[in-house]
Every structure is written in structure tokens, then in C-alpha cells.
Design brief:
Structural class: mainly beta
Radius of gyration: 26 Å
Shape: globular
Bound molecules: copper (II) ion
Order of helices and strands: HEHEEEEEEEEEEEEEEEEEEE
Number of helices: 2
Number of strands: 20
Helix content: under 10%
Distance between the termini: 107 Å
């Protein structure tokens, strides 16, 4: 082998190694919204706990406004007292707040996303009734079936406007069969409107795990089945361009319950205090009159 051949041989080997390295390397950063679950993730098995709490609304909530439904007489006949439902407050407690686990560490050093959370086989229903969406705020898991029904004697056109999922809109005539849909990517939260009735609004939270809940008309919520750990819990309510969020760190003990009470409205801070914080009570002298 002469010197020139030797140089060429070394060069070509080096080149092949480079090509091989390029093909094997360059691993992409994981897409947190990827539609497919990590194939290596295993289901969680072990003790669980829960997070529960109450959503308060400080101050005087905006009054519900009557909706003018004259554009579709069928709506007015069935639901003559239709009012706005963006802020439903009863005795200072706020309904329709979407509460979910955003991130956190499971005891033992893992993350919630390190486990496979099976897609429920049960479907979630969104009904159009009295030209109004029921429920107003709801959650589904990625790829879980959403069943949309029309209980009215008029035509609706359901139209979710997601940012991460595919947008669609579909007419549903009176008497038409349910529309079945699902969302391939996690997204908080997807606004839903009706192209026929501009006042109709709903919000859908799409989650990769089952740790979400919506506050009921007493403001209460509960998230069950959480592995013990420390989590960032988010309470979201509609309003403005993208809604309003409060966050809190909550520790969930095995077979126990973490508490997360949130407050919206007047003077409510951005981050609410966890009731689990072990702050010593400081007694201050109070001037008596
Ligand atoms: Cu409609």
C-alpha cells in the first residue's frame, strides 16, 4: 500500500465514522406535547393520595347579564332566562375553575410524566342544551373520547379554537347523532364556541394524566389517585385573553390529602399560599377600643 492510498483509506474511514455519528447522535429534545406516550413508561403502582380544596371569590362578583337570544327564537322558547356564566359565585365560592397538576416530583425522584397514564375508556359528554354548553368547563385526557350531543330543537355548530391541537368546526342539526372527537395533544384550555349562537362558550382542558378537576357550585374540587410527592397545582379560570391562573405547591402524603385553597377576585395574589405551609402563628397585641 503506497502512502497516498493509506491517506485516502484513513480519510474515508474517518468520513464514515462522522456520517455514522451524525445518524446516531443529534437526539431531539423531547416534545412535551407529543401525541404518543413514551413507550418505555410504566404505569404507576403504589400508594396514592389526593389534593382537595375550595375556590373562593373575594369581593363582589360581576353580575350575570341576560343574553339576547332573539336571533334564534328556539333558544328563547326553551331558555328564556339565559344569562352569562363566566363568573358563577355562590356564598363567595367560585364554580367552573379548572384545577390541575402542572408538574412536580413523585417521592423517589420521578416525575408524573415518567409514568404511563392510561387513556380512560369512558367518554366525557358535552351537551348543548337551551343554547348553552353543559358543562361550561370540562377536562379530558389526551385521546379520550369527547361525546358532543344536541338536546335542542335547533342547529348548533360546535367550534373549538385550539392552539396546539387541530381546529375544526362541525354543524350538528337537531336530532343529529352525537359527534365524537378527541384531542391528540395536551392543551390548557381550549375555548369552544358555537358558530350559530355567539354567546355559547365552553372550555376544555386536555391533560396527559388524570390529575385534574373542576370546582363545583360550592367551589370545591378534589383530585384523587396521585402518587405521594410535591406538586405545582394550578387553578385556572376564564377571563381576559387566556384566562387567569393561580399556582400553589402542594405536598401529597401517601394515603393522605394535601390541601389547596385558592382565591380569585379582589386583592387575590398571583400565587396563593398553601395551607400546608408550617408558618408559626404570631400573636400581635390588638388595640382594644
Ligand atoms: Cu349553538
Amino acid at each position: 500500500m503506497n502512502k497516498q492510498t493509506k491517506v485516502w483509506l484513513v480519510l474515508s474511514i474517518a468520513l464514515s465514522l462522522l456520517v455514522l455519528a451524525a445518524a446516531c447522535g443529534g437526539a431531539k429534545a423531547p416534545d412535551t406535547n407529543a401525541p404518543t406516550a413514551d413507550a418505555t413508561a410504566a404505569p404507576y403502582s403504589g400508594p396514592t393520595g389526593s389534593v382537595s380544596g375550595v375556590i373562593s371569590y373575594n369581593g363582589t362578583p360581576p353580575a350575570a347579564k341576560k343574553i339576547d337570544t332573539t336571533a334564534d327564537p328556539v333558544c328563547g322558547q326553551k331558555n328564556p332566562n339565559l344569562t352569562t356564566d363566566d363568573t358563577i359565585v355562590k356564598d363567595g365560592k367560585l364554580a367552573n375553575t379548572f384545577v390541575y397538576v402542572k408538574e412536580g416530583s413523585v417521592e423517589g425522584g420521578k416525575k408524573i410524566g415518567d409514568f404511563a397514564w392510561a387513556t380512560p375508556t369512558s367518554e366525557v359528554q358535552l351537551d348543548q342544551n337551551g343554547c348553552h354548553y353543559a358543562p361550561h368547563v370540562l377536562g379530558v385526557q389526551v385521546n379520550q373520547k369527547l361525546k358532543i350531543t344536541n338536546s335542542d330543537n335547533t342547529q348548533h355548530n360546535i367550534h373549538p379554537t385550539p392552539k396546539l391541537n387541530q381546529e375544526w368546526n362541525q354543524t350538528q342539526a337537531n336530532g343529529a347523532p352525537p359527534i365524537e372527537k378527541s384531542f391528540a395533544r395536551a392543551e390548557q384550555l381550549i375555548p369552544v364556541k358555537c358558530n350559530q349562537h355567539p354567546w355559547m362558550k365552553a372550555y376544555i382542558g386536555v391533560m396527559k394524566h388524570p390529575f385534574f378537576s373542576v370546582s363545583n357550585d360550592t367551589g370545591a374540587f378534589e383530585i384523587k389517585g396521585l402518587p405521594p410527592g410535591t406538586y405545582t397545582v394550578v387553578a385556572w379560570r376564564e377571563g381576559g385573553a387566556t384566562g387567569e391562573e393561580k399556582t400553589m405547591q402542594v405536598t401529597v402524603p401517601a394515603n393522605g390529602a394535601g390541601k389547596a385553597d385558592f382565591a380569585f377576585g379582589e386583592g387575590a395574589s398571583a400565587a396563593n399560599k398553601s395551607s400546608l405551609q408550617m408558618m408559626p402563628a404570631i400573636e400581635l397585641p390588638v388595640a382594644k377600643h
